[in-house]
Write a structure and sequence with these properties.
It is a single chain. The chain has about 750 residues and is α+β, with helices and mostly antiparallel strands. About 45% of the residues are buried.
Length: about 750
C-alpha cells in the first residue's frame, strides 16, 4: 500500500529546538526571520511518500526481540531527496544557518509524517484481527538487516524510487523504517516510539516516559518510578535498596546480579561474559548495565550478602567468665571497614561483650575499594554515601541498644580515612589525587545526634533516638596517621600493644586495603599498599564475599578438586581464603608455573572447583590468578620495604600481628606457600581478628588509652611506596611464585 497524502504542518517549536535555538538565544530573532523566509520553499521541496506491507521477519534480520518467522508490518516513509539536496547546497555555499534550518525542516516533516500514519497502521491491522506487540526501528532491538527486509517486502525500490546501500542504509537519507511486530487475535496496539530503546542519546527530540520498576528483594516488594535514563543499579541506589557493585558499576565484577522477572532488558556484552546462555534466557542481567526500556520487575540477590559470615571480626576479649546484661555503664565500639561494619556493646566496668552487630557496609553499591567511593563522592554522591553509612549505624545501634532501652555512656569509632570522611561528609576531592591530603584526620569529639545527622529540636527518624540523653551521647573518632593509614590502623596498634613493647613487632591488616606497620614504643613505620579486593572475593570471576556456600577450603589431588564451603552450604562462589587455597593447590599440583601461567588445558575454560547450585561449574581462571598475583606481590613488597626502611631483618621481628577478617580465616601455611608472607614469619603470627574494633573499645574503656593513641600518631611515620625504588623492585620480584 502506497501513501502520498500527508497533511503535515511544520512545527516551528520543534525545528528551532532541533537547532538549539530558544527565545533567550542572542540570534533568536535572526533565526526566526530566516525560518519564516524559508518555510514555503521547504514545503515545495518535500516529496513525502510511504509504503506498507505485511510480511515475516527473515532469518538474516532476526533478533531476540523479533525471532525468525515473526509476523510483521513493514513501513517505510520518505520525504524525498530534493530537501536533502537543498540542505547540502546551502552548506556548500557557506550558508550554514539556512543549511541547518533546511535539515531541521526535513527531520520535523519526516517525524510528523511517520507518526501521522499510526491510525492507518492500526486500522489495517485491526481488519486482520492483528494486534501490535512492539514497534522496532533498526538498529534498536533489531539489526540493520531488517531495513533490507522491509525494503524488499514493500517493493520500496520501484514504488518509491528508493535505493538501499550495502550497509542497509536507505536512500534518500531522509527516510525512516518502522517494523511493527504482530499478535494474532489481539486488540493491543503498542505503536509508540520508545526513546529509552533508541541508541541515539543526542537526539534533540528525545523524551523518555516514566517507567515503573518493581523490585523484589528478601520477600519484600518495592515499587519505584524512574523518570530518567538510569541503570537499574542507579535507580536502586537512589532508593536505598542494596545491591553490591564491587567494580563501582563498570560491568566487570559480576556481583550486581538481578533477574528480570517481567519486562524486557537487552543483553549487554558484560552480561554475555558473566552469564551462561541458559541464565540469560532466564532473565539474569547485571544491574549496572541494565537500562529499563519499559515497565519491569526485577529480583535481587541481596539475601546472599546479608548472610555474609563475618566470624572472627569480633575479637571476643576474655573477661574471666564475667557476663553483663547492660544494667551498668556501657559503651559501643564501632569499626567502619570498607567491606564490613562491626559494632559491639560492652560493659565498661568488666569489658564483657553484651551484644554485637555485624553487617555489610552498604556503600559497596558504589564500589568495593576506597578509590571508587572517593570518585563517587567527588562526582556528586557525597550525601548518598553519608546517608548510607548513617543508616547502617542507625540499624546497628538500634539493635544494640534494644530500641533505646540501653543508653551508652559513649560511642567510639575507628575506620580508614576515606570511611571517616564519608561518615562526616568531608570533601574527598584531595584524597584521591596527589599529594593525597586529607580534609581532617585528628581526633573527633562529637555527639551521637550530630554524627547521625539528627537534631534534638526535630522529630527523629527512628523512635529509639528520642531522648535528649541519647542525642547527647558522646562520640569519639580515633585519629589517623595519613590518607592511606587511618584511624583503623591506629586502633589496630592500640589493640595489639605494639606501641607499648620494647621489642619490634609487625602489624599486617589484610582487607580491601593492605595496611601494615612495624615498630615499638620508640618508633613506628607504617604504609599502605593497593592490594585490591581480591582477598575478599572481589575481581574474581566466580568470587563472592564470605557467605554461606562460598568455597573456603580447597584440596587438589590427581587433577580434581575437593572443596569445603562456609557453613557447608552448596557451593555458590569463591571467597578470598578459598582463592588463596586454590592458587596454592594449583601451584603444588604443577598446574600453574612460576610466572603465574595456568596450564594450557585450563587456559580458556578455567579449572573447575565444583558445580554450583544451578549445576553450572564454578571455575578458577587465569584472570583470577593474575588478580591474586598482583595483590600478593603488593603486600609482600610493602612488608619487605618496611623491614628494609626500619633496618631490621625478618628474623629479628618478635611478633607478627595479623588483623582483619581475611587474616582470621587464612591458612598461614598456604599464604606462605604462595609467597604472601615470608616463611620466617609463620611461627610468629598472632591472629587478632578485628583489632580496629578491639582498639576502639580499649580507647573508650581504659584510662590513658586516648593519650596512647595520640602518642601512636606522633611516633609514626609513613613510607610512601609509589616512589620507593626498593618497593618497585620487590614488587616485580615477588610477582613470581616459588613452585614445588
Amino acid at each position: 500500500m502506497k501513501v502520498t497524502d500527508f497533511k503535515v504542518q511544520f512545527s516551528r517549536e520543534n525545528i528551532l529546538h532541533l537547532i538549539d535555538c530558544y527565545e533567550d538565544s542572542p540570534i533568536y530573532e535572526e533565526v526566526l526571520e530566516e525560518y519564516e523566509r524559508m518555510t514555503q520553499e521547504a514545503y515545495e521541496r518535500m516529496e513525502p511518500a510511504a509504503v506498507l506491507e505485511f510480511g515475516k521477519i527473515p532469518k538474516e534480520a532476526a533478533s531476540p526481540a523479533a525471532p525468525e518467522g515473526t509476523r510483521a508490518l513493514f513501513l517505510i516513509v520518505t520525504v524525498g531527496k530534493r530537501i536533502s539536496e537543498w540542505s547540502t547546497a546551502l552548506f556548500g555555499e557557506g550558508r550554514y544557518l539556512e543549511g541547518m534550518l533546511a535539515d531541521a525542516f526535513a527531520d520535523d516533516y519526516l517525524m510528523q509524517a511517520s507518526e501521522s500514519l499510526q491510525p492507518l497502521v492500526r486500522s489495517i491491522c485491526g481488519e486482520k484481527q492483528l494486534g501490535i506487540s512492539r514497534r522496532l526501528e533498526a538498529p534498536t532491538g533489531i539489526g540493520m538487516e531488517a531495513q533490507k527486509a522491509a525494503y524488499e517486502a514493500t517493493d520500496a525500490g520501484p514504488i518509491l524510487g528508493m535505493d538501499i546501500t550495502g550497509s542497509f542504509m536507505l536512500s534518500p537519507v531522509k527516510s525512516t523504517c518502522q517494523i511493527y511486530l504482530l499478535k494474532e487475535n489481539s486488540t493491543e496496539y503498542h505503536m509508540d516510539h520508545n526513546c529509552r530503546e533508541c541508541p541515539n542519546k543526542d537526539c534533540k527530540m528525545r523524551h523518555v516516559a516514566p517507567i515503573r520498576l518493581e523490585v523484589r528483594t528478601n520477600g519484600e516488594s518495592h515499587i519505584l518510578i524512574s523518570r530518567d535514563e538510569k541503570t537499574v543499579l542507579e535507580i536502586l541506589r537512589e532508593q536505598g535498596i542494596y545491591v553490591p557493585a564491587v567494580c563501582a558499576g563498570r560491568g566487570s565484577c559480576g556481583k550486581c546480579r538481578i533477574r528480570v522477572a517481567e519486562g524486557e532488558a537487552a543483553v549487554t556484552p558484560s552480561d554475555e561474559r558473566i552469564f551462561t546462555p541458559q541464565q540469560l534466557s532466564q532473565g539474569y542481567r547485571l544491574a549496572c548495565t541494565c537500562y529499563p526500556i519499559g515497565d519491569m520487575t526485577v529480583v535481587t540477590e541481596e539475601e546472599a550478602e546479608k548472610k555474609m559470615d563475618i566470624i572472627g571480626t569480633i575479637s571476643h576479649r576474655k573477661t574471666d567468665g564475667m557476663e553483663a546484661d547492660g544494667s551498668g555503664p556501657v559503651m559501643v565500639g564501632i569499626d567502619i571497614g570498607t567491606t564490613t561494619i562491626a559494632m559491639e556493646l560492652v560493659d565498661m566496668d568488666s569489658g564483657a561483650e553484651i551484644d554485637s552487630y555485624l553487617c555489610i557496609n552498604r556503600q559497596r553499591r558504589y564500589g568495593a575499594d576506597v578509590i571508587s567511593r572517593i570518585q563517587a563522592s567527588v562526582e556528586g554522591k557525597k550525601e548518598e554515601l553519608q546517608e548510607s553509612i548513617r543508616q547502617d549505624l542507625f540499624t546497628g545501634l538500634e539493635k544494640l541498644t534494644r530500641g533505646g532501652e540501653i543508653v551508652p555512656e559513649k560511642v567510639v569509632i575507628a575506620g580508614n580515612t576515606t570511611m571517616i570522611h564519608l561518615l562526616m561528609g568531608y570533601p574527598c576531592d584531595t584524597l584521591g589525587v596527589y599529594p593525597f591530603i586529607p580534609h581532617q584526620i585528628q581526633k573527633i569529639e562529637s555527639t551521637l545526634g550530630e554524627i547521625l545527622g539528627e537534631n534534638v529540636t526535630e522529630p527523629p527518624r527512628t523512635a529509639w533516638l528520642c531522648t535528649v540523653q541519647m542525642y547527647r551521647t558522646k562520640v569519639w573518632i580515633l585519629p589517623g596517621i595519613s590518607t592511606f593509614v587511618g584511624a583503623d590502623i591506629v586502633s589496630d596498634i592500640l589493640s595489639c600493644g605494639l606501641a607499648e613493647s620494647e621489642k619490634v613487632s609487625m602489624l599486617i591488616d589484610l582487607g580491601t586495603n593492605g595496611e601494615m606497620g612495624i615498630g615499638n614504643r620508640e618508633r613506628i613505620l607504617v604504609t599502605s599498599t593497593a592490594a585490591g579486593p581480591a582477598f575478599e572475593g572481589g575481581n574474581i570471576v566466580h568470587g563472592s564475599g564470605s557467605i554461606p556456600g562460598a568455597i573456603c577450603n580447597v584440596e587438589i589431588e590427581d587433577g580434581r578438586a575437593r572443596v569445603r564451603t562456609i557453613q557447608n552450604e552448596p557451593p555458590s562462589g569463591i571467597c578470598g581464603t578459598g582463592a588463596i587455597e586454590t592458587l596454592y593447590e594449583l601451584l603444588q599440583a604443577g598446574l600453574v608455573d612460576e610466572t603465574g601461567l595456568l596450564e594450557e588445558d585450563y587456559e580458556e575454560d578455567g579449572f573447575e572447583l565444583a558445580k554450583g547450585r544451578d549445576g553450572e561449574p564454578i571455575c578458577f581462571y587465569q584472570k583470577d590468578i593474575r588478580e591474586l598475583q598482583l595483590a600478593k606481590s603488593a603486600v609482600r613488597a610493602g612488608l619487605e620495604t618496611l623491614l628494609l626502611r626500619y633496618e631490621i631483618s625478618p628474623e629479628d621481628v618478635d611478633k607478627v600481628y595479623l588483623a582483619g577478617g581475611f587474616g582470621y580465616r587464612m591458612d598461614v601455611e598456604k599464604a606462605v606457600g604462595i609467597g604472601l608472607i615470608p616463611e620466617v614469619f609463620a611461627d610468629k603470627i598472632r591472629v587478632i581478628g578485628n583489632g580496629a574494633l578491639e582498639g576502639a573499645v580499649r580507647y573508650g574503656r581504659e584510662e590513658g588509652a586516648m593519650d596512647l593513641a595520640e602518642d601512636i600518631v606522633k611516633i609514626s611515620s609513613e613510607i610512601g611506596l609509589s616512589s620507593d625504588k626498593a618497593f618497585n623492585d620487590l614488587y616485580m620480584k615477588h610477582m613470581y611464585f616459588e613452585c614445588s
